């Protein structure tokens, strides 16, 4: 009863101040957004993401697994492991591409799963997939619990005119096994600059007390 009277008093006070309409507007927004969750959830279940097929020979997959074990033993994925590549083939939208693959990421969350690992992909020659010669296939959870945060920030960066990476989600089938959804993220190279309508040049990433320079040549 006390809550009822306090609520009524608050409502009358806000009505007299002309603020009650704002609360009604917020309530309508909350209701409409929550109701929209149901059809959006059903629509998500019917989504059919693009599929990337990766095929590697047995020796190549064994080498990748060996490198993963070494990285786990070292407690991270050091550069000397990420520099070692294996060969394979990518099939995407009825096109075949020769490629080199390597483990990527700094922390072990990129390779902690028994079979789903983050990979750096480097297509042979001038071949491209969606305008990219180099990209990473990332275990999405390595970019945070909110799986859309990276996608949103790249779209926002593009909206306000900053350099941004192409970022999308793809389903990965590796040697016939469904590995689920990966985040496909563009690498820092001339294709990225071209896509952002920039001239070829140094790509510089600032740190607290220094700069990291990509493609020094």
Could you explain the architecture of this structure?
The protein is an alpha+beta fold. The chain contains 6 helices and 9 strands, in the order ααβααββββαββαββ. The protein has helices spanning 2-17, 20-45, 58-74, 79-82, 149-159, 190-195, and strands spanning 51-55, 86-92, 95-103, 119-123, 134-138, 167-174, 177-186, 203-206, 211-214. Strands 1-2-3-4-5-7-6 form a 7-stranded mixed barrel. Strands 8-9 form a two-stranded antiparallel sheet. The protein is globular. The protein starts with a helix and ends with a strand.
Low-confidence stretches: none
| Number of strand segments | 9
The number of helical runs is 6
What string gives the helices and strands in order? HHEHHEEEEHEEHEE
Query: What is the arithmetic mean of pLDDT?
Result: 86
Strand content: 25-35%
Widest β-sheet, arrangement of strands: 1-2-3-4-5-7-6
As a percent range, the share of helical residues equals 25-40%
The biggest sheet, with number of strands, parallel, antiparallel or mixed sense and barrel status, is: 7 strands, mixed, barrel
Rg from alpha-carbon coordinates? 24 Å
The assigned structural class equals: alpha+beta
N/C terminus separation = 76 Å
- Morphology: globular
Q: What distinguishing features does this structure have?
A:
globular
Summarize it.
This protein is α+β, with helices and mostly antiparallel strands and 217 residues long.
């Amino acid at each position: 009863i006390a809550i009822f009277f306090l609520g009524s008093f608050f409502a009358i006070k806000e009505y007299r101040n002309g603020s009650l309409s704002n609360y009604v507007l917020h309530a309508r927004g909350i209701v409409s957004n929550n109701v929209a969750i149901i059809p959006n959830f059903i629509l998500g279940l019917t989504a059919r993401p693009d599929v990337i097929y990766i095929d590697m020979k047995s020796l190549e997959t064994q080498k990748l697994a060996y490198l993963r074990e070494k990285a786990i033993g070292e407690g991270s994925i050091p550069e000397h492991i990420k520099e070692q590549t294996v060969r394979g083939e990518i099939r995407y939208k009825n096109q075949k591409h020769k490629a080199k693959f390597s483990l990527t990421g700094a922390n072990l969350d990129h390779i902690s799963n028994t079979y789903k690992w983050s990979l750096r992909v480097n297509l042979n020659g001038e071949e491209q997939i969606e305008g990219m010669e180099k990209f990473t296939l990332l275990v999405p959870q390595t970019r945070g619990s909110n799986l859309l945060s990276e996608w949103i920030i790249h779209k926002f960066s593009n909206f306000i005119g900053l350099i941004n990476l192409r970022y999308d989600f793809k389903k990965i089938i590796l040697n016939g096994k469904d590995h689920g959804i990966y985040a496909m993220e563009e690498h820092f190279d001339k294709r990225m600059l071209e896509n952002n309508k920039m001239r070829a040049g140094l790509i510089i990433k600032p740190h607290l007390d220094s700069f990291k320079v990509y493609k020094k040549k």
